[in-house]
Amino acid sequence: MKRLLRYLAIALLLAIVGGCIYLNRLLPIITGYAAKNLASAVFVSGREAKDVEALDLNFSLIRYASNTVDYENKTVTSRFLWNKSIAVYRDGYGVTLLRGASIDELRKQRFPFDVLSKALAEQDSMPKTQLMVGDSVVAARLAPIAKAFVSERAYHGHPFAFVVLHKGGVVAECYDKGIGRDTKLLSWSMAKSFVNALIGIMVKDSLLDIHAPMDIPEWQGDGRKAITLHDLMQMQSGLAWNEDYGARSDINIMLHCERDMGLFALSKSLEYEPGTQWKYSSGSTNIIVRYLRSRFPSDEAFLSYMHTRLFAPLGIINPVFEQDMSGIPIGSSYLYATAMDFARFGQMYLDDGCVGNERILPEGWVDYTRTPAADSGDHYGSLFWLNGNGKFPDVPKDMFYCDGHDGQDIFIFPSQQLVVVVLGFSPKPDNVIDFNALLPKLIINL
Predict the structure, then answer these.
(1) 4 in helix, strand or coil?
(2) Is it the case that residue 234 has pLDDT exceeding 80?
(3) What tens digit of pLDDT does each residue of 386-431 get?
(4) What is the DSSP-derived secondary structure letter of residue 138?
(5) Burial bucket for residue 137 (CB in 10 Å: 0-12, 13-18, 19+)
(6) Contact of 243 with 228, CB cutoff 8 Å
């Protein structure tokens, strides 16, 4: 009996130690998520901290984090058990989750605001996506739908902003309390589609060949050297990846624990031959952005190119594309812009990559974007989602869209000349926006 009790005590001790080790590895994700998202919501979007904690952070173990907002120094410190994380806001850069450096070291990096000044100066000579007032009859029909969606939660979820363009004109625009036309809101994975556009522009400028193997040094000694930008864009790189949003998955480790997110993702081993197996991976987009940055001599040159060649022609004046500790924009997740900015982006894709009479994306680029990845089952193109598999059965199959995991979407309907933007919080599985009910109602009222 004593021996049995001793074994049980040892087993219990091992279980406790193992649980503490696992929890210790999980804590930076819990506190990192809370600190980063609260800081961005407060200092980029201008939302009230208490509202963010009650809605956006009110799930799983995240809800138990204790958060301190320092409005003077523009930081958020989140604590849970024995762990804490600090997120730091910097003008121009937005919020960065502090990993492996002090706040003072991070603040030494100054945003090159002359990049924005240059983009603004060049705007006068550039075509712009003009969002005119749309058909008043259509607007009158859509107004009660917009009100029911945003104010009454008739289609579930918690929408913050809702914009509908028809034939290039605004026919619906509605915002939740505390949100307005100038509020910059989180993209989550819609940022990936902006990376698609940036790649397209660089292809147009003869800076990239998306079908050539990438010259990434870490890949040259094994089968990863065959991976192309095209493979990464279509989520068919063959790299190992776990996109599960629970616990210590690759996506959570990358976003909340790593200094250099692209480096973390590109360090993954090869599971499949490139181009043969579809696997959604936020890591792929951060590999891409890290690679795009390597084509420029400096961070400033890369930011300047992005603002003057992508954002300025669209009339997107001052977006916030947050960076990791390495100084590279987090292309998988963290672009902040207004609902109208996202609508302008969608309109460019509806107009085949043009703004007015000026071609921004290469000819044929939108068709390429909408071409299904071979193993995707017709539901994914190149950093855009497709409706080819009928995920939304009651809307046209030619619809393609940008999708963020918590209720952020830009739906583009070529056959209807329609762009629909939704920004909000729509957590799975219990409060997902019913787009298959909302979207058909918009179409029949055009």
Answers:
(1) helix
(2) yes
(3) 999 999 999 999 999 999 988 999 999 999 999 999 999 998 777 8
(4) H
(5) exposed
(6) no
